[in-house]
Design brief:
The complex is a heterodimer of chains A (289) and B (368). Chain A has 2 domains: 6-50, no CATH class; 69-283, Alpha-Beta Plaits. Helices cover 22% and strands 17% of the residues of chain A. Chain A has helices spanning 6-21, 34-37, 40-50, 83-91, 134-138, 164-168, 207-210, 217-221, 238-242; strands at 69-74, 104-110, 120-125, 144-146, 152-154, 175-176, 200-201, 227-231, 248-249, 261-264, 272-277, 287-288. Chain A has a 4-stranded mixed beta sheet. In chain A, strands 3-2-11 form a 3-stranded antiparallel beta sheet, with no helix packed on it. A two-stranded antiparallel sheet of chain A has the order 4-5. In chain A, strand 4 and strand 5 (152-154) form a beta hairpin. Chain B has 368 residues and is mostly helical. Chain B contains 13 helices and 1 strand. In chain B, helix 4 (73-84) packs across helix 12. The radius of gyration of chain B is 23 Å and the shape is globular. The N and C termini of chain B lie far apart (50 Å). Chain B folds into 2 domains: 30-63 and 334-351; 64-333, Formate dehydrogenase/DMSO reductase domain (Formate dehydrogenase/DMSO reductase fold), CATH 1.20.1630.10. The chains are: A alpha+beta (289), B mainly alpha (368). At the A-B interface, helix 3, helix 5, helix 6, strand 6 and strand 11 of A face helix 6 and strand 1 of B. Strand 12 (287-288) of chain A pairs antiparallel with strand 1 (328-329) of chain B, so a sheet runs across the interface.
Chain lengths: 289, 368
């Protein structure tokens, strides 16, 4: 075996050390946390010691102080057209390999419906941005985190793809990039970063829009105005007014996750007994067609 | 065949072992040993190629896992091997070694991986003093013996309370999954880990003694280990029995669903697990069950039944849909992920076989 001379050893050690200290970073997190990871461990140390990070990109969106985002979905208005789902997919550069997209629309039936009478209800399900999010609790690297404005975010640079968050999420809201995600360049939204293979992704409440004061893309796309998005801390906001009614309920509330998506429906429809994903379910990985 | 013989002779001839006792001990180990090593090398290569395909060429998508069953064979084996080998410090060391910053204090995964590293340190310290005393001919200094004793007790407590129980908690904390979300799981992990750990120790000891034709552990010690194995199998079965009883008779929809899957689609694994553990325990209660052959059979059956249990624990927990009515969820491991696991087992076996040849562990220390 060839022995290394001192010069070669120093060179090799330098490369190895450089790789450890500045690992190549591919994904852009699209959040306030991304810039701390651009310099690897050095960035973490500098940020920890000084609170300063020189690589913070201009225009990285900070959470708006005093805001807590929430969404209300009126199931009596939802017609199951799935425009929200398709619009979300386009807006967030969700590749076709990710199936179902961030929003799954189910066809459901209520348990307390009058027997013999079929009460179909369409119900979109996505990340609930829980206050006590099980996915955030279990994430080993802190890649999943709760922003002050209530959005559960993922720092794609920190995600190691262990999928602990996916088994922890009671709403099956997270998707994994099983293959290299491909979205044609012409179809890409430049405001949303492309994720890498091997990382988890999900609904971000369209952080690139909502932190600029806009609403989410799914709200815009809904033809029947079933969705409402807004600031829960503002008593005059539309969402605050809507949840003052007794029609609201939250998905799997018994788990005390503190969902920030509220469903509105008539009392008889509050308990859903089955959820059949609307087509095309045969594309869902892991589901027998 | 002739060509293979030629290559074999050439490889042997090229192994120049002047002054290198390690190489000589492998060279002189015999043809059967060399054939086993060659097979293991082929399996390792198969695993490595599959790993490269998964990680760098085709993607994780060629494994059988899905968004609905995110954890598959890897996690089954992870749980089995960590449970089996208390010194499963690899994961923790790897995570730290590759510069990944684990800084979420609420994640059980961070906690458990750190404890593996801690446990490895305690075990290595204990091993240091144990080997030192052995090399001194079994008569260590007062300080050495005290240290070896207290570190062994510390390692035992560490394994029970800090490694295995939180390892169970890694699953028990997940309220989304009915099968895992039980306070029984951490205690259950401890007993299963002890049972599978003892079974593997018995298995390896007997196999190694057979290969090396040396008595490593006395028959009495092995018999005592068999007794311990029976005890821990009994405790595990006791917990299992009441767990399943509660699952069935409490009538909770989630529990009934798990029971349904255990006794229909996964009935083979369920029977392999319960009947396997029960028969191994009964077998070990008799005198003839604790002879060398009896112990070998009982430990093999235990290892297989605990593997079946791990499969049930990880996979069945993810099969009931989180949204009833979504459809039939399934998981089937694919060839590449099986290959990776086979490769990892082959690597460990290879290292074990080579190191038992190379390291003069049984020879008393000579000199200073």
């Amino acid at each position: 075996m060839k022995k290394l001379n001192r010069r070669e050893f120093v060179k090799l050690a330098g490369i190895a050390g450089g790789y450890v200290l500045w690992p190549p970073k591919s994904g852009l997190a699209g959040s306030e946390a991304l810039w701390s990871s651009k310099l690897g461990i050095v960035g973490d140390i500098i940020e920890g010691a000084t609170g300063f990070n020189p690589t913070k990109p201009e225009g990285a969106l900070e959470p708006i102080p005093g805001v807590k985002f929430a969404m209300v979905i009126d199931l009596d208005k939802c017609i199951g057209c799935r425009r929200c789902s398709y619009a979300c997919k386009r807006e967030n550069n969700v590749p076709d390999a990710i199936s179902p997209p961030y929003i799954t629309v189910f066809e459901t039936e209520s348990v307390t419906g009058v027997s013999g009478i079929y009460h179909p209800t369409e119900m979109p399900v996505q990340c609930n941005h829980c206050d006590d999010a099980p996915c955030v609790q279990v994430c080993p690297t802190g890649a999943s985190y709760k922003s002050p404005d209530g959005i559960v975010m993922i720092d794609y640079d920190k995600c190691i793809g262990c999928r602990y968050c996916m088994v922890a999420c009671p709403y099956q809201a997270r998707r994994f990039n099983w293959f290299h995600p491909e979205v044609p360049y012409k179809d890409r939204n430049p405001l949303v970063p492309m994720r890498e293979e091997g990382v988890v992704e999900k609904c971000t409440f369209c952080v690139h829009r909502t932190r600029k004061g806009k609403t989410t893309r799914c709200v815009e796309a809904c033809p029947n105005k079933a969705r409402t998005f807004g600031n829960l801390n503002d008593p005059d906001s539309e969402v605050s007014k809507l949840i003052k009614s007794e029609r609201w309920w939250r998905l799997k509330d018994e788990l005390n996750t503190g969902c920030n998506i509220y469903y509105l429906t008539r009392h008889s429809k509050k308990n859903m007994v089955w959820y059949k994903p609307l087509p095309p379910p045969q594309n869902i990985r892991g589901l027998r067609s | 065949m002739k060509d293979i013989r030629k290559v074999y002779d050439k490889v042997l001839a090229s192994m120049k072992d002047e002054g290198n006792s390690a190489l000589a001990s492998i060279k002189d180990a015999g043809r059967t040993f060399h054939i086993i090593l060659a097979i293991l090398l082929v399996l390792m290569a198969w695993g490595l190629i599959s790993w490269v395909r998964i990680m760098f060429i085709e993607g994780v998508g060629i494994t059988g896992s899905s968004d609905l069953v995110p954890w598959g064979l890897y996690i089954v084996c992870f749980v089995f091997f960590v449970g089996t080998s208390a010194g499963a410090s690899l994961m923790g060391l790897m995570i730290h070694g590759f510069g990944l910053v684990l800084h979420n204090p609420t994640s059980m995964l961070v906690y458990t991986s750190m404890t593996y590293a801690g446990f490895a340190t305690v075990m290595l310290s204990e091993l240091f003093f144990a080997v030192k005393i052995t090399r001194m001919g079994g008569e260590g200094s007062y300080w050495d013996e005290r240290m070896a004793k207290w570190l062994a007790i510390g390692a035992l407590l560490f394994a029970l309370m800090v490694v295995h129980a939180p390892h169970g908690a890694l699953f028990a904390f997940l309220k989304a999954r009915e099968m895992w979300n039980t306070p029984l799981l951490p205690a259950h992990f401890v007993t299963v880990a002890l049972a599978s750990g003892i079974a593997v120790m018995i298995h390896i000891t007997i196999t190694t003694a057979k290969i090396t034709k040396k008595e490593i552990v006395s028959k009495e010690t092995l018999s005592h280990m068999g007794g311990l194995l029976a005890f821990f199998l009994g405790v595990t079965l006791f917990m299992d029995f009441f767990d399943y009883l509660v699952m069935k008779y409490s009538g909770k929809p989630g529990g009934l669903e798990i029971w349904h899957f255990l006794t229909t689609d996964f009935i083979h694994f369920f029977l392999l697990n319960t009947l396997g553990m029960f028969s191994a325990m009964v077998f070990l209660l008799f005198k003839w069950g604790r002879t060398i052959i009896g112990l070998f059979i009982a430990s093999s059956v235990t290892i297989i039944s605990i593997l079946a249990y791990r499969w049930d624990l990880i996979i069945v927990a993810q099969i009931p849909p989180l949204f009833p009515g979504i459809g039939e969820i399934y998981y089937t491991p694919t060839v590449p992920e099986v290959a990776v696991m086979v490769g990892v087992v082959a690597l460990v076996t290879f290292l074990y076989l080579v190191l038992t040849r190379v390291l003069p562990m049984e020879e008393p220390f000579q000199g200073n």
